[in-house]
Automatic annotation (TrEMBL):
Organism: Galeopterus variegatus
Protein name listed in UniProt: Protein SERAC1
Compartment(s): Endoplasmic reticulum; Membrane; Mitochondrion
Domain of life from the UniProt record: Eukaryota
Homology family: Belongs to the SERAC1 family.
Membrane protein topology class: Single-pass membrane protein
Main location: endoplasmic reticulum
Amino acid sequence: MKSYIYVNTVSLDKRENHGVTFQARKELHKAVRKILAASAKILQSSFADPFSTVDVEDHECAVWLLLRKSKSADKAARLEAVREMSQTHHWHDYQYRIIAQACDPRTLIGLARSKESDLRFFLPPPPLPSLKEDSSIEEELRQLLVSLPQTELDECIQYFTSLALSESSQSLAAQKGGLWCFGGNGLPYAESFGEVPSATMETFCLEALIKHSEISTHCDKIEANGGLQLLQKLYQLHKDYPKVQRNVMRIIGNMALNEHLHSSIVRSGWVSIMAEAVKSHHIMEASHAARTLANLDRETVQEKYQDGVYVLHPQCRASQPIKADVLFIHGLMGAAFKTWRQQDSEQMLTEKALGDEDRYTTCWPKTWLASDCPALRIISVEYDTSLSDWRARCPMERKSIAFRSNELLMKLRAAGVGDRPMIWISHSMGGLLVKKMLLEASKKPEMSTVINNTRGIIFYSVPHHGSHLAEYSVNIRYLLFPSLEVKELSKDSPALKTLQDDFLEFAKDKNFQVLNFVETLPTYIGSMIKLHVVPVESADLGIGDLIPVDVNHLNICKPKKKDAFLYQRTLQFIRETLAKDLEN
């Protein structure tokens, strides 16, 4: 067993090595030697052996016995040991440090995924290597990208890699002039035609690395070339820039999908970083960390959460069994978290600034639904969409609804979707993806559980029969050149009509429970455009209740407060549809 002892450095001046300080240091070293000797005897003997020959205080035995138990061949015993450790809050600092130094990676990851764990269980990450002389973070990121395979890449990886390697921040900003759409709100704000959000080279390097990290062999190269340490350095340098930190965590989460890299991720100190991040009050930060830790935890998690698939609840190891899944699929220009936030108002924004989650939530499925239905696993999905080809994060990317639905279906199946009863909840174009995913799953025998376990669907302003947005974009083509996603929403789209006809027949045959909400107010896009995105007639699927709500397209999925009709009706549908499953 290898142990590390942390003591203050000793002065070389012999005159200082006398008196109370010197004697205290000697006693400390004696105590440490005693602990190490005792631990060696306990860990090398069988679990049932008596400890009468071990010279150790009674209160110390609990620490070492838990440590032994955590390394048992019996999985139930290991899980119980981690649970007991995580619930211990009365130990001295050195006792937590003993566990931190002596536990195996499996136990460390288990503690990181335990809600009550004390952060003293986690050692600080190892010291990071210094930057090379005359180098910078930007340059080392460039070198890491250069070291990765550049052949057989899809167009998006080539695009982001090219940006990071060949362009400067200034030229990129100039190159990106024009209409900018700010993501997360469902639709862009066309307020400026010349101002561009600031971008750094690190951002473009990370975009490229995210794409590379989706390929297993590229993850091996990232690890072999010091990428884990370099990314950690970037993470620490940008503590005040959450977007950079989230992108770094996305890369680590993708690398954690490869089990042979787990030991490297643990050794580099990432578990300690994630253990702290998963306790964050910021839902996005906590969710990214939770995804990475779940991918590392092969002791209790069989599923794998690929890029863009986030578990909102439970984000830690749970004692209560999960009985059903609820899946949230955002729409055009949406996001996994911001689409599902509480509706903004002047008062709510004040409470948001104060960080009061009881009054304002940045993600109501995580805060409200998880509290009201703790036996649910709640998943939110994120994927890139664009209103305009000018805004596409990857302009080479042309993904149809059919392509995206197949891509998402594979990711969700890897996350265990289909193994439990479930409800789909979607906003806008996300509802079209849900319909397409279910139709595709019905054609594949290996996806039959997805169909058999689907209990119901909630559609928030889904344009089943098309949207005025597509027509409007065509009419002002010189400002908003419509993306492929928008073109597919036009009312005369043959693909949209076929999707509606096929799904309606399919849903009736499977007797899915359906609830439809629809906006009645127009949506303001910036200061120039006012548009009723999804009219009532388009939101009518043909089955299930259709409920008009006096809000616009952005707010149809954002309840004003927990007791608002929009949330309470949603909660009622979930409870009624899953009533039998939640009782079992």
